[in-house]
Design brief:
This protein has 607 residues and is of the alpha+beta class. It folds into 3 domains: 145 residues, Creatinase/prolidase N-terminal domain (Creatine Amidinohydrolase, Chain A, domain 1), CATH 3.40.350; 147 residues, Creatine Amidinohydrolase, Chain A, domain 1 (3-Layer(aba) Sandwich); 285 residues, Creatinase/methionine aminopeptidase superfamily (Creatine Amidinohydrolase, Alpha-Beta Complex), CATH 3.90.230. Helices cover 35% and strands 21% of the residues. It contains 18 helices and 28 strands. Strands 4-3-2-1-5-6 form a 6-stranded mixed sheet, with helices on both faces. A 6-stranded mixed sheet has the order 12-11-10-8-13-14. Helix 4 crosses helix 5, helix 13 crosses helix 14 and helix 15 runs antiparallel to helix 16. The protein is globular, with a radius of gyration of 25 Å. The termini are far apart. The mean pLDDT is 95.
Length: 607
């Protein structure tokens, strides 16, 4: 019996044959460069069965390949089995990029320009130009290409729209629009087109649920010196729900015009000659960029980095205060979950990874202001935790036993903030290697949390702090150490990060970034510890301005799997102080039995 994904790839090949294409490139994103696309744009998953958040495909007449990074190597190998799709590993020595591979195997390349960014297509074009110096090549843009073979493809999502008040987010939409207009005046553009959905939600102080886990609205936003036009209408606007109608009326009162999601081309076509637009090269899709160039002229369209990405990454005082509350509330849910898990498994109850995931979401759902999870819970026991982005299945997931390590990586969306936390916890007796890995990863997390660094330092310059303990034992992990976290927005945001890859963006006071080193041993276990850090000023002296971190996460770190002799006195002091602070802040609001349990869990580590 033919594998369903093999059959779908054969359908693409028949389309290729009819049109004379040598290769088809399929992106794992949507028209807005979203990390978590809505079902309509889960093209890679539909074609291959791979469910990871980062993956792109190339299909030729005799090869089908998936390109993904080390977070998904084990998962991809398992999910691609039997499909005939080859795994191409990225970010490893000797890796051949998707662009270079395509250039070496095709002259005519077809792609869905709605789901490819300007930067992605530029990369493919440059690779083709380099390898085709003595022969012609062609890139064919076929918007919604898979409509031709995906018979039951989902529609563009349309969810209710709400607005947030200044007391929720600390700045009005009018104030944010003024910021953008100052950018336009300083740079000399007539307009800026925003296409990243979290950028748009941040500017307009709106939220929706068009994408699972991300409270955003599928839309574009064009801001000029005089106007703001939101291309957000989908379906019958007259039949919209009450929340959306109220939100749209509020936006109109602030001078925001609202029109159809697909109305950008018509609007741009009505602008005067010479109308100049600034766009985000990393988020705007290639088809829309091409339309702008064709209508306005290439000299009138400038592609760069959206200023909004930096604006929203620096949280204001209101957002910071609300985030502190969010991590307290989230911590209360996590502590009750961890207490329940330990007692249930210890009592001999059969608790699967899926059962634990559902229970954790239930604890969060009881928090006033909860709006859903910030990403799919990772609930992984034993060998499954060796997959950094393990997908917990509703059926057939592993049973958690009273031994070894269990890893939970999860987060919540609240009206007052977004959370993300990972805890690896011993469920009983652990092996010496499990304990050693547990301790070395913890040392890395603590080292980064304690960092003090000069103003102007980028995340890539301090990434080594989280890896040093592991490197000293010749161990490592393949993913980044830290990502930005939004405010009731996407759990992953930039422009800052903490990873080995060069990113010149300095860490700034007000930025919120994760601290999550790990180690993964295939077939054995995985360890990751994650807290969320707020960058703050740490003082000024004759050597300059100094920055450091405040840990926002409020949930204890289990000390029973620690190898004490591997900790320095400074690390033990930090850990004891942190755990004590967790108990002091949470205990009065926990059920009596949970508070008593937490008291035991936060007893100081003795060296």
């Amino acid at each position: 019996m033919e594998n369903i994904h093999s059959a779908r790839i054969q359908a693409v090949r028949r389309m290729m044959e009819r049109n004379g294409w040598d290769a088809v490139v399929v992106s794992g994103s949507d028209p807005h460069g979203s990390e978590y696309p809505a079902p309509r744009w889960k093209q890679v998953e539909w074609l291959s069965g791979f469910t990871g958040e980062a993956g792109d495909m190339v299909i030729t007449m005799d090869h089908a390949g998936l390109w993904t990074d080390s977070r998904y190597f084990i998962q991809a190998a398992s999910q691609l089995e039997g499909s005939g799709i080859a795994l191409h590993k990225t970010r490893v020595p000797g890796a051949v990029s998707l662009s270079d591979w395509v250039a070496a195997h095709a002259d005519t390349v077809a792609l869905d320009g709605l789901s490819q960014s300007i930067a992605q297509v530029r990369g493919i074009r440059e690779a083709l130009a380099l390898s085709h110096q003595e022969r012609d090549f062609r890139i064919v843009d076929v918007p919604d290409m898979l409509d031709r073979v995906w018979e039951d493809r989902p529609w563009i999502p349309h969810s209710p729209v709400i607005t947030l008040d200044v007391q929720d987010v600390g700045e009005s939409r009018l104030g944010k629009l003024v910021r953008l207009r100052k950018f336009l005046m300083a740079e000399g553009y007539d307009a800026i087109l925003l296409s990243a959905l979290d950028d748009i939600a941040w500017v307009l102080n709106v939220r929706g649920s068009d994408i699972e886990y991300n409270p955003v609205v599928m839309s574009y936003l064009l801001v000029t010196l005089d106007d703001a036009v939101w291309f957000a209408g989908k379906g019958n606007i007259a039949a919209m729900d009450a929340d959306t109608e109220d939100s749209f009326n509020e936006l109109r009162a602030d001078g925001v015009e609202i029109t159809d999601y697909d109305g950008l081309a018509v609007y741009i076509g009505g602008r005067e000659e010479g109308f100049s637009v600034y766009v985000d090269a990393g988020a705007l899709n290639y088809s829309t960029y091409t339309m702008l160039v064709n209508v306005l002229g290439k000299g009138c369209v400038t592609a760069g980095s959206s200023p909004v990405s930096l604006y929203k990454s620096v949280k204001n005082d209101v957002e910071i205060a609300n985030l502190r509350d969010a991590y307290i509330e989230d911590g209360l849910a996590l502590e009750q979950f961890l207490y329940w898990l330990e007692k249930a498994v210890g009592a001999g109850e059969e608790v699967s990874e899926w059962d634990a995931s559902v229970k954790l979401t239930w604890f969060r759902s009881r928090i006033p202001g909860y709006r859903g999870d910030s990403f799919a819970n990772i609930s992984a026991y034993g060998p499954n935790a060796a997959l950094p982005h393990y997908t917990t299945s509703p059926s057939g997931s592993s049973v958690i036993r009273p031994e070894g390590l269990y890893l939970t990586d999860s987060g919540g969306q609240y009206i007052f903030g977004t959370t993300d936390i990972t805890r690896t916890v011993p469920m009983g007796e652990c092996t010496p290697l499990e304990k050693e890995d547990y301790t070395l990863v913890l040392k890395g997390m603590i080292s980064l949390a304690m960092a003090v660094f000069p103003e102007g330092t980028a995340g890539c310059q301090i990434d080594v702090l989280a890896r040093n303990a592991l490197w000293g034992s010749k161990r490592n992990y393949g993913h980044g150490t830290g990502h930005g976290v939004g405010f009731y927005l996407c759990v992953h945001e930039g422009p800052q990060d903490i990873r080995q890859n060069f990113n010149p963006q300095p860490l700034l006071p007000g930025m919120v970034t994760s601290d999550e080193p790990g180690i993964y041993r295939e077939g054995m276990h995985g360890v990751r510890h994650e807290n969320i850090l707020l960058c703050r000023r740490a003082g000024t002296n004759e050597f300059g301005v100094w920055l450091g971190f405040e840990t926002l996460t409020c949930c204890h770190i289990d000390t029973s799997a620690i190898v004490p002799e591997l900790l320095s006195s400074e690390e033990a002091e930090w850990l004891n102080r942190y755990n004590s602070s967790v108990y002091e802040r949470l205990s009065a609001r926990l059920p009596v039995e949970v508070a008593a349990w937490l008291k035991e869990k936060t007893e100081p580590v003795r060296l």
